[in-house]
Amino acid sequence: MHFDIADQYRHRLSVVHLLDPRVKVVATFSFILTVSLTPTGVWWAFGCFLVLILAVAWLTRLGPMFAVRRSFVALPFVLAALAVPFTTPGSILFRIPGLGWTISEPGVIRFISILARSWLAVQAAVLLTATTRFPDLLWALGVLRFPRLLVATIGFMYRYLFVLADEALRMLRARSARSAHVPKSPRPPIGWQGRVAGMMVGSLFLRALERSERVYAAMLSRGYDGHIRTLDRFRMMTLDWVALAVVVMVLATPLVVALIQ
Amino acid sequence: MWFSPVELHIPDGFLSPMVSAVGWVLALVMVGFAIRQTRDQLGERQIPLMGVLAAFIFAAQAINFPVAAGTSGHLLGGALAAIVMGPWAATLIMTAVIATQALLFQDGGLLVMGWNILNMGVFTAFVGYAVYALMRRLIGESARTRLAAAFVGAWLSVEMGAIATAFELAISGTSPLRLGLPAMVGVHAMIGLGEAIITTGAIALLQVARPEVLAVGETAPGRKGASFLAIGLIVALIVAIFSPLASPSPDGLEFVAEAEGFLSRGLDPLYEVLPDYTVPFITNETTTTILAVFVGTLIVFGIAWIVGRTTFRREAEGN
Amino acid sequence: MHHTIEVNDLHFSYPDGHIALRGVNLYVSPGEKVALVGPNGAGKSTLLLHLNGILRGRGEVLVCGVSVKDDTLGKVRVSVGLVFEDPDDQLFSPTVFEDIAFGPIYMGLLEVEIRDRVAQALEAVGLENFEDRVSHHLSNGEKKRVAIATVLAMVPEILILDEPTAGLDPRSRRGLINLLHDLPQTMLVSTHDMRMVSELFQRTIVIDQGEVVSDGLTQKLLSDDTFLEEHGLEAP
After folding, report:
1. Residue C155 — very low, low, confident or very high, per pLDDT cuts 50/70/90?
2. Residues 71-90, chain A: which have Cβ within 8 Å of B?
3. A104 and A163 share a domain?
4. In chain B, which ranges are E strands?
5. pLDDT over 80 (residue B16)
6. Main-chain phi, psi angles of B76, to 5 degrees
7. pLDDT tens-place string over residues B208-242
8. Contact list, A259 vs chain B (CB under 8 Å)
9. Which of B63-72, B180-189, C127-136 has the highest average model confidence (pLDDT)?
C-alpha cells in the first residue's frame, strides 16, 4: 500500500539532472523573479523567456510537453485576475451587449501578461522539482541560508508524509467500506459527516504524535543531541559555474533591455 | 493529486514583485520567531515533533466530507495546529507544509511564498488561536465551550486568510478590492465552515481520548502576544475595509491623506525608472487610501506585536 | 569491555500511574543470546527502553559495566544498539545512507570513517549498494535490515531488538533469523515468535505483569505447557 504522492522527481541522464542543486534553485528563483519584473506587454521579452524555458525543458530530456502539462495546476487562480480586462482604464476593445461591461485594450494586455508570468514561473518550478531529488533540493536550500531548522523539519515531514498518508488512506477506505448508501434513503446530515471527518483527523493527529515520540526515542538512541548535523552532498564543478553564468546572462539581458525601453 | 482545496495558494505572477518581497521579509521574520519560540517550548523534540505534525497536516488536508453536489469540505489546519500546539508551533508546521506544496506540487508560487506562508500559516494560526483563547475567556472553560471556541476560531482563521489574500491581490493591482474582497470573503465563508466542522470534530476526539494534549497549546509561548497581535490585525483590517466608506472628513482621514501623499511621493522615483510598470489603480484615490491604510495596518500589527511581546515577557518574569 | 547487561531491582511506573516494571532482575553474559518473551503489556518494551536510558526507573541498570545515568548516556547509546519494532520509527532520514550515517555523525567521526561504517553496516546486513535508496520504497524486510544497519554502524557491543520478525513474510523472516544468528554481539531479543526462540536462543526470560517469572533454558520452558499457557504463551 504505497503512496507516491510526493515523488515528483523523474530520473533522466541529462545535463540538467547532473547540475548542482544549488545552481538549479538559484536559476529557478532568478527566472521567476525575472519574468515577474518583466514589464507588462513586452511580448518579445516574454517570448525570449519562453524560448529559454523550452530549451531547458528539452535539455532535461523529459519531453517537450512535460512542464506544460503540469503547469495547469495554477489554472483555477486565473479567476482572481479575471476582473483585470474589465476594470483597467484605457481604450475600449469590446463592449459586452446587455451588461454594459467594457473590455479595454490595456486591460487585455495586462491580463495576458499576468498569465504569461504565471505560466512561465510554474514551468520553471516544475522543471526544478522533476530534475532534483527532494532531499538534495532541501540540502541546497539549507546551504543557501534558508533557516536550517525549517529545512530539517521539512525533511522529516517529507519522510513521514507517506507513512501518515497511508494511515489517512486506510481510514478513508475504512470509512467508504462502511458508507454503503442505500438509494432513496436520506443521506446522513452534513454536520455528522463533517464530525466523522474531524474525528478521523483527530485520530490521525494522535497517531502522528505517538509516532513522533517513537522517532524521537530512536534519534536519542543513536546519539541525537538536539543539534543539526549533516554531511556535505555536492561540490560545485566547472559545469555548474558555467551553467549559472549562462542562465544569469540569458535572463538579465532581455530584462534590462525591456526595462530600459 | 493532493491539492490543497482551500484556494488560497497564490501562484507566481499574481502579486507584484515588490509586494512579494515584503511578504518574504515578513514571513522570514515570523518563521525566525517561530523557530526560537518552539525551541524554548519543545527543546530537543522540536524537529521530529514539528516534522511529523507537518506531515499530519499535509495528510489531514486530504480527509474530506461531502458537502453538496460534488464539492467537499476540507481542512487547512492552521487553526487546529495553533489550538493544540500553540501559534508559534503552528506557524512552523504550516510553513513546512506550504513550502513543500509550492516546491513539490507548484501549489502556490515561489516568489509569492512569503505571502502564502503569512496568509495560510501565520494569520490562520494566530487568529484562530487568539479567537479560541478569547472566547474561552468570555464564555467559560468547559468541554462544550472549547468546541464552540474552536469552531469560531477555525472559521475566522480561514476568513482572515482570505481577506489578507484579497488585499495582497488588490495592492498588486491584480484584482480590485471592491470585487476581490467580497468574492474571497463570500467563497471562504463556506469553506471556513468545513474547516470549522473538521477542526471541532478533531478537538472533540482529543478531548475524550487524550485531554492532556490540549493543555500543550494552552500553555504554549506567545499566547499573550498572539492575542494582541491577532486582535490588532483584525481591528486594523476592519478599519481598512470600512475606511473608504467613511466620508473624506479632514479630521478622520487626515492621517490617511498624509500617508497617501507620502506614499505617492515615495513611489514616484520608482515609476520613473519603470514607466511601463505603472499600475493603473494607483492613481485611483480609493485604492491609494486602502494602500495607505494597509501600511498603517502593518504598523499597528508591529506595535501590537511589540506590546504583546513585552507584556508577555513581563508576565513570564513575574512568574 | 564487559559486553554485559545487568538489571537490579528495576521499578518503573508511567505518568498515568500504570506500574510497568516491579523489581526486574536480570543478567546477560558477554556474547550470550537471550530471548525475552511474555504477553502483550507485560513490560517487555518498557524494559528494553531502560537499557539505553530512554526511560529511567528506580533501581540499577548497567550496560557493559557502565551505570546508566545522565552523564553516561552518550557512552551507553554507543554500546547498546536498540532496534525498535517499527522500522519506520527508526528510518527517519531521506536516504538509507543518511539514516545509517546518523549514528556515526553524532559520534563525531570523520567523514571518511563515516562512509566506511555505512558500507560495512550495509554489508553486514546483506544490503550492499543500498546507500541511495529511499526509505519508503523499501520492503518491510529491507526496512528491518536497514534499521539494524543503522545501529550496527555505531559498532555496539550489545544488540537489543524489539519484535524483529513481526510483520515479515516467511522469506524475509528466514533472512532475518540467519542474520541474527551470524551477528556476534551480545543479544537480547523481545519477541512473540516462539519458533525463532527455540531455534536461536538457548536461554529465555519470561516476563509477565512487570516481573520476571522465569529465566532459564529455552527447551525446559517450551516443554512446560501449563506454565506457558499461564503466561499467555504457546509452544511452537
Report:
1. very high
2. 71, 73-74, 76-77, 80-81, 83-84, 87-90
3. no
4. 65-68, 71-73
5. yes
6. -90, -45
7. 988 888 887 777 766 666 666 666 666 656 655 55
8. 273-274
9. C127-136
ipTM over 0.85 threshold? yes
Report yes or no on A188 lying in a domain: no
CA C1/CA C157 separation, integer angstroms: 8
b/e sequence B255-285, b meaning 16+ C-beta within 10 Å: ebbebbeeeeeebeeeeeeeeebebbbeebe
B158 in Cβ contact with B6 (< 8 Å):
yes
How many A×C Cβ pairs under 8 Å?
Answer: 77
Q: Which residues contact A69 (CB under 8 A, 6 or more apart)?
A: none
Is B252 found in the same domain as B316? yes
Q: Are residues A31 and A44 in the same domain?
A: yes
* Backbone phi and psi for residue C58, each to the nearest 5 degrees, phi listed first: -95, 130
d(C-alpha C186, C-alpha C3), whole Å: 7
Count CB atoms within 10 A of the CB of residue A69.
11
| Helix B87-105 × helix B46-60 angle, to 10° | 60
Nearest to C89 by CA among C14, C146, C50: C146
The answer, for C210 touching chain A at a CB cutoff of 8 Å, is no
Residue C228 near residue C235, CB atoms below 8 Å: yes
Q: Which residue has the cell 467508504?
A: A176
Q: Which domain holds residue A216?
A: 147-178+194-230
State which residues form the domain around B64. Answer: 1-219
Bridge partners of C207, per DSSP, are C212
Q: What is the reported pLDDT for B301?
A: 56
Query: Rounded distance, CA C138 to CA C143, Å?
Result: 6
What count of Cα atoms within 13 Å lies in the side-chain half-sphere of residue B135?
A: 21
The pLDDT, as a whole number, for residue A66 is 84
pLDDT(C224) > 60: yes
Answer yes or no: do B186 and B252 share one domain: no
Residue A137 lies in a domain: yes
Same-domain check for residues B275 and B296? yes
Among candidate residues B201, B219, B237, the one where a domain is terminated = B219
Domain boundaries, chain C: 5-230
Site of grid cell 487546529: B80
pLDDT for the residue B5: 42
Distance of CA B112 to the CA centre of its chain: 14
Question: Which class for A260: exposed (0-12), middle (13-18), buried (19 or more C-beta within 10 A)?
Answer: exposed
Considering chain A, what percentage of its residues have pLDDT values greater than 70? 96
Amino acid at C204: T
pLDDT tens digits along B264-311: 544 444 444 333 333 344 444 455 555 555 555 565 556 555 555 554
Q: What is the pLDDT at residue B233? A: 63
Is the pLDDT at A245 greater than 70, yes or no? yes
Q: Domain check: are A135 and A34 in the same one? A: yes
pLDDT above 70 for A79 = yes
Q: Which of A71, A87, A167 sits opposite B176 (nearest CB)?
A: A87
Q: Which chains touch C (3 or more CB pairs under 8 A)?
A: A
Give dist(CA B241, CA B233) in Å, integer.
12
Q: Please check whether the domain covering C5-230 is classified as CATH 3.40.50.300.
A: yes
Place of cell 511601463: B276
H or E element that contains C214: strand C211-217
- B169 near A CB under 8 A: yes
